[in-house]
Amino acid sequence: MWRRVKRRFGIAAPRLSVRLHMPWYLRWSMLVPFVIGTLGLAWWAYGSGLELAGFHRSEAEQELVQLRERVEVLGVENENLKSQLVQYERMVQIEQSSNQETAKQLKTLSDENISLQEDLAFFQNLTAVRGKEGELAVHRLKLERDRMPGEYRLRMLLVQGGQRAKEFSGSYQLVATVLEGGQRTTRLYPQDASGNAQFQLGFKYYQRVEKSLQLPPGAELESVQVRIFEQGAREPKLRQNVNLS
Fold first, then answer.
1. pLDDT tens across 16-46, in order?
2. CA-closest candidate to residue 222, choices 171, 184, 191, 188
3. Cβ atoms of 220 and 214 closer than 8 Å
């Protein structure tokens, strides 16, 4: 016991140190200005470095504002240009449609003009044809492709000569030469199992005939022979061939 007391309060006892106690708010009041000053110094150094490097914040902000305003102006101009472009496209479409319609009308009028010229030439020669009493002739015989694949159209004008021609009553047949599968075959129109069917005719001076022919896929029409029959006759009165034009 005595040894313990001696060690605690004797010469060998540990030294006692006395320190001045400072409240925390005083410490913070001294530390905060230092931190603020350090941050301000750093910010000033940063700004000075940018200025030395040629970068001015106020000028950059002003340029940024100007660029934003420019972008807005360009956006408005872009929308206006788009609207104008749509209007011009509609105008071009309308004009193209009008041009196409005009071209169609022009082609139709041209075809009608050609047909009228042919009719005029025919009627001018009709008097000479009538000089032969009762003679039957085929004029303007044409064979052309139609719009749909495998369709063909035949046109002809039947004329009976003479000033006092009687009414012609009869019929006609079409014998088509067809190339199918590398072989030539013939087809009779109208198509009938008995082979006796015929297209009827009845006219005094002339009659226009227009007939559409339909072939199966892969078949190619080469030519057609027109056979004209008088009523009750078994042999044709007139035969005439026409090739595909």
1. 555 656 676 667 777 777 778 788 777 777 6
2. 184
3. no
Question: CA 91 to CA 32: how far, in whole Å?
Answer: 74
Q: Which two structure tokens, joined as six digits, stand for 18?
A: 């006395």
Number of residues in the chain: 245
3-state secondary structure of 58: helix
Domains: count for the chain? 1
Q: Does residue 9 form part of some domain? A: no
CA 157 to each of CA 67, 140, 154, 206, 240: distance values in angstroms, whole numbers, following the listed order? 80, 6, 11, 7, 12
For 163, the domain range is 131-243
Residue with tokens 């026409």: 242
Distance of CA 99 to the CA centre of its chain: 17
- pTM score over 0.70: no
**CA 211 – CA 208 distance, rounded (Å):** 10
User: What backbone phi and psi angles, to 5 degrees, belong to 222?
Assistant: -105, -50
In a domain, 210, yes or no: yes
Nearest residue to 226 via CA among 216, 215, 211, 214: 211
- CA angle, 74 then 75 then 76, to 5°: 90
DSSP state of 167: P
